[in-house]
Amino acid sequence: MGGAFTIVLIITSAYTAFLIFNSILPVWYRLGLSLSKRKIAILADNDNHNNLRNVLIDSKLFNPKNIEKIDENSIGKVETQSLLLMHWTSHQENLDSILINKKDSAMLIIYAPMEEGRIESEELEKINKHRNVIIVNFRGRLINDVLVSMMTSFEK
């Protein structure tokens, strides 16, 4: 019986190692690369930019040097970014140009706090027609969506 259990244990261990190397480690690797190298472009006015930047930095997950600011005078920079975080009330008038200029593979996270008002249904329809766009109402959810976006939209 000892030999049969040893063989089963070896096969089970090898299969478990195979599953870990093919499923969990690639996700960790992609997340690690994203956290260390990927730039997060924040589209917001000065006050909201500082608030969003502090939310990201205070989480201790994101490198402060990887957080960039894009103001309304440099919306054209959107086309070179892979992860955009937009404060809704600061840039709602620029939504069309942001959606047109962003790459299809780029993630756009729109932070729209409820206390600043709702997004109109016409704007929601525009947003819904584009890929990789997320609307977030809460700061806690914002960190989660940035992390998930970094894992799912990985560029080599």
Account of the 3D structure:
The protein has 156 residues and is an alpha/beta fold. The protein has helices spanning 2-37, 46-58, 88-91, 95-101, 121-128, 139-152; strands spanning 40-43, 67-70, 83-87, 107-111, 133-136. The chain has a 5-stranded parallel β-sheet. β1 (40-43), α2 and β2 (67-70) form a beta-alpha-beta unit. The mean pLDDT is 88.
Number of strands: 5
**Overall pLDDT level:** 88
Can you tell me the residue ranges where pLDDT is under 50 for at least 5 consecutive residues?
A: none
User: How many strands, which pairing sense, and closed or not: the largest β-sheet?
Assistant: 5 strands, parallel
Key features of this structure:
alpha/beta, 53% helix, five-stranded parallel β-sheet, elongated
Write a short abstract of this structure.
By secondary structure, the protein is of the alpha/beta class. The protein contains 6 helices and 5 strands, in the order H-E-H-E-E-H-H-E-H-E-H.
What's the SSE blueprint?
Elements: H1 2-37, E1 40-43, H2 46-58, E2 67-70, E3 83-87, H3 88-91, H4 95-101, E4 107-111, H5 121-128, E5 133-136, H6 139-152
Parallel strand pairs: 1-2, 1-3, 3-4, 4-5
